[in-house]
Amino acid sequence: MNHDTIDALLQKINDSATSEGNPRTKAIVNRVVRDLFHTIEDLDVTPDEFWTALNFLTETGKRGEFGLIAAGLGFEHFLDLRLDEAEQKAGMEGGTPRTIEGPLYVAGAPESDGHARIDDGTDPGQTLVMRGRVLGDDGKPLAHALVEVWHANHLGSYSYFDASQPAFNLRGSIRADAQGRYSFRSVVPVGYSVPPGGKTEQLLDQLGRHGHRPAHIHFFVSSPGYRKLTTQINIEDDPYLWDDFAFATRDGLVPELKKAEGAQGEPYGVTGNFALIDFDFTLSRERGDVPTTQVQRARAAA
Ligand code: DHB
Ligand code: FE
């Protein structure tokens, strides 16, 4: 079909509006529909293919997998890169790199002062202590900043989404002390893979791609007057470190996993050998001329 004929149809659809509606929604939907009409035409998409895709999307929604697909198709990383660019254009530099939130945060984790143990003692993984400070972009500590942390267990599963784990297992909210210091005790996570037999896996198979993420730990770090940081750190040496299906690994987010033992564990109630990560988070001051990092999205809460 001629592109002019397609555009005439699009115009007819657009002209059928009898009230203003929401101009922003209209602009976006009209653009997406136009792009899809042209895709169908240019790639000669058959009716079978169209309805297969529609059914795929329906099933994806029913299984709650759209958040995974957004990560796996690179949309979530793309949004990060757009925020990075907006900050660069506004002359901002420094600060801990952001990286994707992913779909597995749960609001409402118990809050602790300064330090928290976030594993329940049943995970066979190696004991981990992670500690550091929250700093402003002037290098000064941010007293009482909030560090929210969440990660997967030794099977790559997240509590809440994996009902076999206790509530808020491997999740915590740590209020840094007056010197901006935080620490937590947990276990070293392993990598995550998209749910077997799910729609994300089915799509990735069709694309000839895997659905693995390297072992990682998620953070929200916030302090009044500063831009909320959404980020992750990776466990070094993971085979998928630079082959993440969600494209979230970034320079500056792969701290050394140190070997520690003995008296080093005392402040955290750890005996014997353990893994230690030292990592400071640096936040940028809030400003009015760059898009906010306080992103609204549907999140689980318990
Ligand atoms: C996905 C899983 C994660 O653990 C994560 O951090 C990001 C994305 C996912 O399945 O898409
Ligand atoms: Fe994750």
UniProtKB/TrEMBL annotation:
Q: Which cofactor does it need?
A: Fe(3+)
Enumerate the catalysed reactions: catechol + O2 = cis,cis-muconate + 2 H(+)
The GO terms describing molecular function are: catechol 1,2-dioxygenase activity; ferric iron binding
Report the PROSITE patterns cross-referenced here. Answer: INTRADIOL_DIOXYGENAS (PS00083)
SUPFAM superfamilies (alphabetical): Aromatic compound dioxygenase
Source domain of life is Bacteria
Enzyme Commission identifier(s): 1.13.11.1
> Carries keyword Cell inner membrane?
no
Intradiol ring-cleavage dioxygenases domain residues are 130-158
In terms of InterPro entries, this protein maps to:
Catechol_dOase_N, Cchol_dOase_prob, Intradiol_dOase_C, Intradiol_dOase_core, Intradiol_RC_Dioxygenase
Q: Which GO terms describe its biological process?
A: beta-ketoadipate pathway; catechol-containing compound catabolic process
> What NCBIfam families is this protein classified in?
catechol_proteo
Write out the similarity annotation.
Belongs to the intradiol ring-cleavage dioxygenase family.
Put simply, this protein is called catechol 1,2-dioxygenase
